[in-house]
Structure formats: C-alpha cells, structure tokens
Amino acid sequence: xxxxxxxxxxxxxxxxxxxxxxxxxxxxxxxxxxxxxxxxxxxxxxxxxxxxxxxxxxxxxxxxxxxxxxxxxxxxxxxxxxxxxxxxxxxxxxxxxxxxxxxxxxxxxxxxxxxxxxxxxxxxxxxxxxxxxxxxxxxxxxxxxxxxxxxxxxxxxxxxxxxxxxxxxxxxxxxxxxxxxxxxxxxxxxxxxxxxxxxxxxxxxxxxxxxxxxxxxxxxxxxxxxxxxxxxxxxxxxxxxxxxxxxxxxxxxxxxxxxxxxxxxxxxxxxxxxxxxxxxxxxxxxxxxxxxxxxxxxxxxxxxxxxxxxxxxxxxxxxxxxxxxxxxxxxxxxxxxxxxxxxxxxxxxxxxxxxxx
Length: 357
Description:
The protein is an alpha/beta fold. The chain is built from 14 helices and ten strands.
C-alpha cells in the first residue's frame, strides 16, 4: 500500500527572496514512510527546497510534527492534501531551516539555577517550544517549553524556586501570558503544570511578595481588571431570524457531541472555521487584556470571514468576555465585525426548540 499526497511546500531564501511563497507537488510514498520522507521527496523534485538535518521539526497543516511521525498517522489525521511550513515561518532563513537561537535564549532565563540534567530535559522539548500557541500572538513569547522545565525544576525541589518564578514571570511575554495549548501533532498536556506555576506566583503572599508586586505592575501596564471576566446575571438571549442566518459554533476546549448532532439535524446553515477548538483568552484576560482580546478577536473574525452571522459560544464565561468587550476586541484587531451576533449554546438550544416546535 502507498500514499499519494498533494503537497503545498514553503519556499524562502533570505538572501534572494523578499517574501515566502509556496509550490505544489504530488508525491507517492510507501506505507512505512515517515514525515522526513515527505521532505526528501519534495527535495528530489526541487533542489531549492531545504530543511534542517538536526532538530528536524516542521509544520504540516499548522501542526508541529517530528521527523519520525508515520505518514500513515498524518494521513489518518489530516488527509492527503498537506501544507508544509517551517517550525516558525518568521524565523526562516532558507526554507524549513530557521534561526533557532530563541530556543536556548529562553533556556538562559533558568540556566543559573539548572543542572546538566535539566538542560538535557529542556532540549527534548524543542518541538513543544515551537508549537506554542501564544507565540502566534506575541513573537517575543518565551515558549511553553521553558515553563514546563520551570515546573519540573521546582517540583524536584530546586532551592531557587523564587528566582525561577521571577525569571519566567518578569520576561516580556512569559508565564502570565500563557493560556496553555499547543499545536503539536501528538498533543502534550501541560495545563496542570502551567496552572500550578501561576498559583505559586499569585497565591504565596509571604514567600513571594516581590512577585505579587510585579504582577500588580503588569496589571497597571496592561490595564487588566477583574471586571473583564466577572460573572453577570444575564437575561435569555434571542436572535431575530435565527433560522435564516448562517451560524458558526465555537466549542472552545469542550467536546459537546450532542451540539454537533443538533446542528447536523437542524435546517440552519453552518460554517466551519479552524479556531473552533482554540482557546480565546478567557484565562489570561486579567493578566494581559490586550493579548486576550487578540485571541478572542482571531476566533470571532475567522468565523465572521467564513460567513457566519451568528456565533454560538459553548462556555458562558467566554460569551460574557466576548460580548461585554466586543468593541474593545474590534479595536484591538483593527476590524469591524458589523452584524455579527453572539449567543450562548444554552440560549441557542432553547430558541431552536421554539423554531422547531
């Protein structure tokens, strides 16, 4: 058995090109092929296509894959039409070869407190570093990998706990900007570690007063306020002419199978968009309002540009954040989403029942 793939591959040479571009290829690979074989086959058809020999990780359809990922698994998950990009397009020097100095620059934050064993472990997190979702919104983000290392070091009893927390929190874009999710092909779940780090910083008043002062300073600089996410007592929402409007369902980190079934069985037109399961800033709005609004705006704007007139939002708190700050979100992303309406999933289900009755 073999796989026939349609590939759209990234090209860029910093010495000769002003902007990156893509070229299309058709490949046939054996059933036992791995991700690196895709790159080898593309290069065989075009010698200008380049990729690193060491630390080979790259994106397929915006998910980070490692060189030994089976093509069979890739096809099962993503299909046979694939887009190939560098681990970080902005850092590309030549095709998939990137300037990866930022990886060890992040490590330098903890290097004074780390052992050789810590450094060795950090190097295993190379793919995780470049799969950080936060980096898509702030290129100066230190990466998820260094936060995972920090949690490991503290959990193992490193005596420099205060210094470690200070280093990852005082960075221009660090711990408090992380709403953990990553774009790894094979997901890694580090939400608990990131949450634990934030709890250490925010709740240990006696041990870390300087950290608390630093957080207050961040609040002042970024204008964050707890009012941005406070629960509000709301009336039921209804959308005029709901049955005639195009709808997008934003699930966030939930997997509401009955909702998908309901939408499939209804007569309402729906649109698909890639951020349906991405987080949208709720957990970081108190620490970095601007970044949270960028993430919320990216979600709503993608649904809007896909043709949605109504966005059904699964989580009530996320709905409150988006609805209460809709104008601020528009201003942050620099786009008006005229006519876009938001509704909670529970209110949508209730209204749909009256339409169907």
